[in-house]
Amino acid sequence: MIQTLKPDLITYSKAVEVETLDASTGTYRANISDAYLIVSVPNGGYVAATIIEAASLHMAPKSQPHPLTAHFEFLTRSTVGPVIITIEVVKPGRQLTTLHATLHQQNLLPAAPWTTPSSRKCITAYLTMTSLPLSGLSLTRFTLPNPPPPTPDFSLLISDTDPNWTSHPFLTTHLRAVAALQNLHFFAPRPGTPHQPRTIPDMWIRLSTPNAHFTTSHLPFVIDSLPFSVEALRPAPGHDENAPFKHDEMFWYPTVVMNLEVKRPLEERDEVEWLFLRMKTREIRDGRFDLEVVVLDVEGRLVCVGSQVGLVLGMERNVGGRGKI
To answer: Which residue intervals define the domain Acyl-CoA thioesterase-like N-terminal HotDog in the entry (predicted)?
Structure first.
């Protein structure tokens, strides 16, 4: 079993805090926290969220602080510590502006030009920035096919006495080594509750930090928190003989590509405590999987849609130091 030290929980806003170095050149600095590690590698969605924060800061003077869409390419693993984020305005517009962003790490400089030829490009991204909500025609409202169990009584859910939903037990399993997961509380349908196929899990989540609320910058982390649709196929203890892998085998799920479309921005003043996630994987093939995540609020309104391509690797690839994914 891989053991890791549990870092102190810090507020997400502090973990994704971005400092302006030079707004005229679109240069920003952030610091990657060890509170969001997947064993030894920071969670990719969390690191991507620092890019969204930098983009929002960059576009605030243009009154376009909200990401409408974001596409992230994970080029190599990041590490705990400082990063430099550079932003280029590719196509300005009165309603929509397209940005190209790159997150750099290692061999950074304390002053301009901030990066060196030997600095690593960990993530590159394209973002469409705007001011939400946009004015225009609205015709339909999304509803989930095959509805989940009834929306819980959240006061009962906190005490784990809701009749349909219960706290997910992953922190008592092999996943207790994943520090990033300790920043969220997950609640799944109770065993025996009519539910989706195992590869289409549903979850209610809230933040572990007391009195914290979800914001738009949480969304990349939320949709990349863990591919539960892959973990749902893990064999039970004692059923390893004919299973494709052992019940306690550790996997690392690095994200290759991630896409995000925001339907409704989440502001701190909205005090959004709970979010609903439905995850769907169509096929796990040759160590690769697709993942689609739909995020709703407590009123059943669509908050965002995320998708990604990920890998299934042995955990030794995570803890073995820098190398090719």
So the answer is: 41-128
| Half-sphere CA count of 276, side-chain side, radius 13 A | 20
- pTM here is 0.91
Identify whether the C-beta of residue 41 lies closer than 8 Å to the C-beta of residue 252.
Answer: yes
Res. 174 pLDDT band, cuts 50 70 90:
low
Q: Residue 321 carries which side chain, given as an amino acid letter?
A: G
The answer to whether 68 and 96 are in contact (CB under 8 A) is yes
Is it the case that residue 2 has pLDDT exceeding 80?
Answer: no
Distance CA 94, CA 131 (A): 10
Quick: pLDDT tens for 70-125: 999 999 999 999 999 999 999 999 999 999 999 999 999 999 999 999 999 999 99
Helix residue spans in the chain (DSSP H): 12-15, 44-59, 154-158, 219-223, 228-231, 316-319
DSSP secondary structure string, 114-154?
---TT-EEEEEEEEEEE-SSPPS--------SS--SPPP-H
**What is the arithmetic mean of pLDDT over 252-258?**
95
Residue 281 tokens read as 């994987």
Residue range 193-223, pLDDT digits in tens: 776 677 788 999 999 888 899 999 999 999 9
Specify the amino acid at residue 101.
A
Q: Where are the beta strands (DSSP E) in the chain?
A: 18-22, 27-32, 37-38, 41-42, 66-74, 81-91, 97-105, 120-130, 165-167, 184-189, 202-207, 251-252, 255-262, 275-280, 284-285, 288-296, 302-311, 313-314
pLDDT of residue 176: 67
Do residues 319 and 39 make contact, with C-beta atoms less than 8 angstroms apart?
Answer: yes
Phi, psi of 250 (to 5 degrees): -95, 130
Distance separating alpha carbons of residues 73 and 308, to the nearest angstrom: 10
